[in-house]
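Before relying on records like the one below, remember that each one covers exactly one chain. Contacts with other chains, cofactors or solvent are not represented anywhere in the record.
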Amino acid sequence: MRQEERNRRSRENILTHAFAEFAEHGYSAASTNAICSSGNISKGILYHYYKGKDALYIACVQRCFQDLTEYLKAHIDLNRITPESYFDVRLEFFRQHPYHLKLFCAAVITKIPHLDKEIRACRAAFDEWNDACLAAILSQHRLAGGLTLQDAVDQLRLFEDFVHVSLAAAESPESRTNRHEEICRRALHVLLYGLIER
């Protein structure tokens, strides 16, 4: 086996076990010792490929958002998108990848101040695609007076941030994860269509 392939496999093995550790325990409670133990990985090998816990966490978050964004792009037609179809695709992805859901929720809800810039960079492609989905949904409707499409997308993003802040105050990471997608789906529906039947 060529050295390049051995390196790829070693990195992938580390990332697989780190992904599970961060998903199950969150950034704060996760440890490189547990990652090494679960994957039968020496600390020397782990630190050869990743500088430490922060670098490993960012690699996992990057993988999470990359996998999610690629799946959404492959399964959503912007010309036929609805709020329901958008969340159906997201929920199907997370059903197939439960660790991704946990890591996704942790990354969008839990603030890690010293990693905030890196996490935002990991999210950039997802946020751009998410905005394109919101714009495609909104463009199917007549907007309220004075609102541009960009204004409407910005308002939806602000409300999304509010949802994340409110979920951060929830009693446990598990309850936040379980409720995240349904709360986001319902919030988008209310913002688009209102509370009162007309």
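The two ends are 67 Å apart (CA to CA).
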